[in-house]
């Protein structure tokens, strides 16, 4: 395909999938010394989803991907990027399996690991594939099963993380179309890699919650501002901010840093917790269905995760369908 400087990546469909069972704060309080009141007031989380033992992260990814495809006009996709930090197995990557199970044919398919920033990194990668002429239509899938790496006895992490998946289809289009990715910002800081990591000595995730909190607010706000500036917008012109759903207090703090009214920052964490890479597409679906995200809105997605990694994307929200299901 010819490489075009003017070929934009345009959002064309959105799909999500959440597993069952639902695990409430009260359920968790049976296993660890915590309380519904503590969890709600410190994180904004009331419940999270957990993959049943009979399913794996690929089942979630597949369902979200199929839903995103169903939300489009059915044109075939010609590349698939899977963002996950909780893969079913160390190798091979899951993306070729998802592509095969979807019947996409021999399309390029690969995994991307940027922890909770994975969706924005994958969106940027897909944008590059499209604008570079490598692909015309890319399926970006973010799927996570943190329940498989969180210690159920660790109240610092068990209360926060949940399982889920979200996916979008990006297609080649014009930069002035609604849905065109207008600006991207990505970054990392490996010096703080141990703040959220899997220690070799344990199968479970270790997190320095308080330090992560501080970095998250700084990086989310700075990265969001970078794309706002690149678009020639001011922060007050942003209609909808869709931050990584790490903690409701982090979302509020980021909105404050940007001097945005709190209601313009989507907070959809209450029923799903922090679903890592899947959190932004899940929050997008919630916002679309609640009518908070409307066509034409100046929209900024901003993510932060272990690594450390962070990233943001800006677009004008298009008229787009969202298809959801449960597993
Ligand atoms: N239930 C009850 N008490 C808890 C608790 C829980 N689940 N977790 C911690 N505590 C206690 C601590 O032991 C501590 O008690 P102490 O004062 O007697 O020592 C107290 O609550 C405060 O702990 P602290 O860790 O300072 O709480 P916090 O306000 O920072 O909240 C997090 C903890 C994890 C909710 C918060 O730091 C956070 O959300 N961090 C970011 C995490 C994140 O977003 N990770 C993913 C990034 S992609």
Automatic annotation (TrEMBL):
One BP annotation, GO: fatty acid biosynthetic process
Annotated keywords: Acyltransferase, Cytoplasm, Fatty acid biosynthesis, Fatty acid metabolism, Lipid biosynthesis, Lipid metabolism, Multifunctional enzyme, Transferase
CDD domains: KAS_III
A Pfam family of this chain: ACP_syn_III
Record's catalysed reaction(s): malonyl-[ACP] + acetyl-CoA + H(+) = 3-oxobutanoyl-[ACP] + CO2 + CoA
Region annotated ACP-binding, chain positions: 245-249
Catalytic machinery residues: 116, 244, 274
Locations listed in the record: Cytoplasm
Similarity annotation: Belongs to the thiolase-like superfamily. FabH family.
Function: Catalyzes the condensation reaction of fatty acid synthesis by the addition to an acyl acceptor of two carbons from malonyl-ACP. Catalyzes the first condensation reaction which initiates fatty acid synthesis and may therefore play a role in governing the total rate of fatty acid production. Possesses both acetoacetyl-ACP synthase and acetyl transacylase activities. Its substrate specificity determines the biosynthesis of branched-chain and/or straight-chain of fatty acids.
Subunit structure: Homodimer.
Protein name: Beta-ketoacyl-[acyl-carrier-protein] synthase III
Organism annotation: Crossiella cryophila
Gene: fabH
């Amino acid at each position: 395909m010819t490489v075009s400087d003017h070929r934009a990546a345009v959002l064309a469909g959105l799909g999500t999938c959440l597993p069952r069972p639902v695990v409430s704060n009260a359920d968790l309080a049976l296993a660890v010394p915590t309380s519904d009141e503590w969890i709600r007031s410190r994180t904004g989380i009331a419940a999270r989803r957990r993959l049943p033992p009979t399913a794996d992260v690929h089942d979630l990814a597949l369902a979200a991907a199929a839903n995103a495809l169903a939300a489009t006009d059915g044109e075939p996709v010609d590349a698939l990027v899977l963002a996950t930090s909780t893969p079913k197995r160390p190798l091979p990557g899951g993306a070729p399996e998802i592509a095969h199970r979807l019947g996409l044919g021999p399309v390029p398919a690969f995994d991307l690991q940027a922890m909770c920033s994975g969706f924005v990194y994958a969106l940027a990668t897909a944008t590059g594939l499209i604008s570079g002429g490598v692909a015309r239509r890319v399926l970006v899938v973010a799927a996570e099963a943190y329940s498989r790496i969180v210690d159920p006895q660790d109240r610092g992490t068990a209360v926060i993380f949940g399982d889920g998946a979200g996916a979008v289809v990006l297609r080649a289009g014009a930069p002035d179309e609604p849905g065109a990715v207008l600006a991207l910002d990505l970054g990392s800081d490996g010096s703080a890699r141990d703040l959220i990591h899997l220690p070799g000595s344990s199968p479970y995730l270790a997190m320095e919650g308080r330090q992560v909190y501080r970095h998250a607010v700084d990086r989310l706000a700075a990265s969001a501002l970078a794309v706002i500036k690149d678009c020639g917008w001011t922060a007050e012109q942003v209609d909808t901010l869709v931050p990584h759903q790490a903690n409701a207090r982090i979302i509020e703090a980021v909105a404050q840093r940007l001097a945005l009214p709190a209601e313009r920052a989507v907070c959809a964490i209450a029923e799903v917790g922090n679903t890592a890479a899947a959190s932004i597409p899940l929050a997008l679906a919630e916002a679309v269905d609640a009518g908070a995200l409307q066509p034409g809105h100046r929209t900024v997605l901003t993510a932060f995760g272990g690594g450390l990694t962070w990233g943001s994307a800006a677009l004008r929200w298009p008229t787009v369908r969202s298809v959801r299901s449960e597993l």
